[in-house]
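Readers outside the structure-tokenisation community will struggle with the description of the input data as it stands. For illustration, here is how one protein appears when written out as sequence plus structure tokens:
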Amino acid sequence: MAEAAEFQGTTSAPACRWARRTAVLLGVLLFVGLLHLPSAPAARADVGGTRSVGVSIDALTPVAPTQNDTLTVSGTVTNNGKSAITGAHVGLRVGSQLGTRSDIDDIGDKGGFSPSSDGAEVGGNHTQKIDKLAPGVSQNFSLTLPVKDLNLGKDGVYQLAATLSGQSADQPYERVLGIQRTLLPWQPSAVEGKKTKLTVLWPLISTTHLSARTESDQQQTPVFINDDLAGDLAPGGRLQQLVSLGKTLPVTWVIDPDLLATVEAMTKPYRVGTPDGKSSTPGRGQAVAKQWLGQLQDAVANHQVVALPFADPDLASLAHRGKDVSGALSHLQSATELASTTVDTILGVKPRTDFAWPVDGAVDTSIVDVATSAGAHNVIARSDSFRESGNTYAPTAARQIGGGNTAIVADARLSTAFQGEMIRAWDSSLAVQQFLSQSLVVNKQAPENERSIVVAPQRMPTTSQAQAMATAVKGLSDGRWTQPLDLGDAARATPDPSASQQVPGPGSYPDSLRSQELTTGAFQEIQKTQSTLDSFKVILSAQDRVVTPFGSAIMREMSTSWRGNPQGAGQFRNGVQAYLYKLTRQVQLIKKSDATLSGRSATIPVTVENGLLQEIHGLKLVLESSQPNRLKIDNAQPVKVEGGHSQSVKFETRANANGPVQVTARLFTSDGQQYGDSMTFTVHVTSITPMVLLVIAGGVLLLVLAGLRIYLQRKRAAAHKAAGGGPENTGGDGPEGSGGPGDDMPGQPGDPAVDTGTQSGGPSGPGEKVEH
């Protein structure tokens, strides 16, 4: 057969085998060659590798589109490589639908381009050409297309990506060089089922700006720590933006009344203390303060207002560090009572004061006990503290926790959506899309159940964070899957039967938050200031001039705003205490020099100075003798001194013996507490009076005259004797009046002693004579 084959012109068997091998080899080479040919843009990418081009999606509008909307995606591309990008374009890709809340959380952290999950580029004329992108250069892009061209499927959350495809000199074929992903919540219209009732808290809280200091004028012009608040209230400032944005949103306002009181003080002339605390300068925010308060009054007119306790006291710090310090918890009750009055007076609305809001919604049993001790029956918690067991289902926020109290458990993901830096437009845009997407997924968890979800954001959002929050809330305004609800109604919602009602124990409180709390020593210092104030106010005729500014300052010392700033908190406490001590020293005893008491009875004056502008009363001045057997004092006198005056108080004394006596003067309040420092001086007691000195001087003169008489008589007698005469009669009426030569008749032992006393003959120096 082989021969026949050859005869017929066919190749031999070895030749056929060679041909087959050659064909196989050529096929392999062709297949390998095809693998290395330039591919279509969708097929080539730096999968999982470093992105040579950075893509940023800075805005997506509308944030939650409907079927008939036109979608605009804008942003920037930046060449991070070392060679120019040419022949490039930006396009959009719709990825798979995301089914879980965790997928939404992770969307911004995904790696390089993946054709399978990121999808194909949206067809049609929906790309933007980038002719050349030099190294380090950025270029803006904006893509606009009908939403229907995205070919979205069933309702849900979709991944939407912007990619830049192009080539470079080292790799001259088109590939995906950069990608950025965002989220597109998709529910074009309201569907059957119940909408999620959404409560959004809109916090209006600031740091402490007002000190306890006031000028010493009749108006008590307030002195501020700084004038930073003026910038926050001015157009474009943080607080001005919160009011302007919140006015049109369906939110519940949560306000610190201290902020209102501080701004209200700025509407009048005020001063700003210098850093050294020795002087002050005029404040510059009076006009913006008036304007801001007017805007706020309009903004809250048709909204529910929740007032936090005055100065927003740190409930966790009180529960963990302050409750064992006597009197510390009483400030929370005072702050709660002051809250309603302040908001009603300044804004003209009656606020709710039965809500407590611990920092970051982190609660434990001790925090709940403290929060409810002052009348708050609703505690705003957060789901990352009040955890559910074993599932991702978001139940209704309200939980009954016993004692007639309710925990309002805010959704942690929605509440923390805007806590990051929002300086870059990309961060803000992604936060908005994540918030909307999370709310849609929550609604789809159980659309047959009507649930109430609460959003409790950070206490003091920045301007950019507030703007992002407002954009997100507005994105829900058409009510396709949510409807707004006030916080008060959310607290009354029927709880989910399966929702956890167990308040965490103290051991569950996060260490990161515990480390920021006020210390026990801080609460002890606060109580020291309160004790000083209590002792001071009882002597004042116009207590409000002191009690009001210092009472508010003490509440500010416990503010949540001091978290993370222990140095600032300590400086504020020290400043309040130092200023109060300075005021108490305006009422004092004037230093008295030593005194001399030259008689058996006299009065001793002691002067009390009042440097305050108001009258003081209710004080008692007491003098105490160190030796009552030598110097006895009527030791108690009431004190009443007009403002800016001094008064001398006189004490009756009686001397029983000579010598120095130390006398101590003290002021006491009506409840028996010593006020201020004591004052000590010395009284030198002597029984020699001026009359006694005259008697002694007269006696000396009589002795001199008597001696002179004797001398003359003896001289005449001697002269008479020398002349030969007899003895001469010297005169005298009796035995005691006569005597011979040289007689010196002393006083008789039975004669009464003259009370002449003793007295130093030296000058009195700085001492003083007391009044007789």
Summary: Confidence is low (pLDDT under 50) at residues 1-50, 726-772.
